[in-house]
Write a structure and sequence with these properties.
single chain, about 280 residues, mainly alpha, 10 helices, about 75% helix
């Protein structure tokens, strides 16, 4: 009998080649996707700026009496830059904002933590905090000028108050919004109150603190302009008041653009800090 014929040996095929996936970052997103997203963001920002400029030109040619266009405002900005007036005013306003803002944030963060962590402190401070929140800082400017004079102290005080009230509420809300499960889990693992506070409460409330800082920054700029309109010898708000007396609309526009540009840069810096300090947080 013939031996059964052997089945032909199957060819050994190599595993199918797969297209290598693009490298991923620490957050799990591919670098290609991130690059595309950044390019899209830049293009959208440029489109938004172009749309705003076109709207400005349209308003200038719409027949509104005295409304300046980009050309006249740019010419006036060049004059103020050439004689140093714009830099001098911007420096004076920026110094006031930074002084009052930093002092307000430095005091607001510990006060907000104390209010959120200790119920006794919360019951003592929160009624007064809510009371002063209902009083606009601009309404305190005349009182501050009467009590503190017309030098830098009242201006810095009202800026401090505006930034403090904005930031302390966000910090307090961040502490009370911490997930109780995380706190209890840390305590079950043997963590004591200082460890729970530093390891759980502070990181969880950091996004709230940074949001409060951004809100306080806007409130500080609004307050400094109002304070300079009432009593100042220099600053962007002071220059706008002087321009108003002579119906100098291009100068007013230059000061407004300077305030918005400086505030935008400061806000972007805070946003970068927020992304670095809260990189663990999921984002849309």
């Amino acid at each position: 009998m013939k031996a059964p014929a052997r089945a032909p040996e199957e060819r050994r095929t190599s595993p199918p080649r797969t297209k290598p996936s693009p490298p991923k970052s620490a957050h799990g997103t591919s670098t290609t996707a991130r690059g595309t997203g950044r390019l899209t963001a830049v293009l959208l920002a440029l489109a938004s700026a172009a749309l705003g400029l076109l709207s400005w030109v349209a308003l200038a040619h719409s027949g509104i009496d005295g409304f300046p266009g980009p050309v006249s405002v740019g010419r006036r900005a060049g004059e103020l830059i050439a004689d140093g007036t714009l830099f001098e005013d911007a420096g004076a306003s920026l110094k006031r904002v930074l002084t009052g803002y930093v002092l307000g944030v430095l005091l607001a963060i510990p006060v907000g933590f104390l209010m959120g962590w200790y119920p006794v402190v919360r019951r003592l401070i929160e009624p007064w905090l809510q009371f002063f929140r209902m009083v606009p800082p601009l309404a305190i400017i005349p009182l501050a000028i009467v009590l503190m004079g017309i030098d830098e102290t009242p201006k810095i005080f009202v800026i401090f108050l505006a930034s403090f009230l904005s930031c302390v509420v966000s910090t307090f809300q961040g502490v009370v919004a911490v997930d109780v499960t995380l706190v209890n889990a840390a305590r079950v693992l043997g963590a004591r109150d200082p460890q729970v506070f530093l390891g759980v409460v502070v990181p969880a409330s950091t996004p709230f603190i940074l949001v409060g800082m951004r809100i306080g920054l806007g409130a500080s700029w609004a307050t400094v302009v109002a304070a300079e309109l009432i009593a100042a010898q220099g600053g962007l708000g002071f220059r706008m008041q002087q321009a108003q007396l002579y119906y100098d609309l291009p100068t007013i526009f230059v000061q407004l653009i300077a305030i918005g540009a400086i505030g935008l840069v400061m806000d972007r810096l805070l946003l970068v800090a927020e992304r670095r300090l809260t990189h663990w947080q999921e984002r849309r």
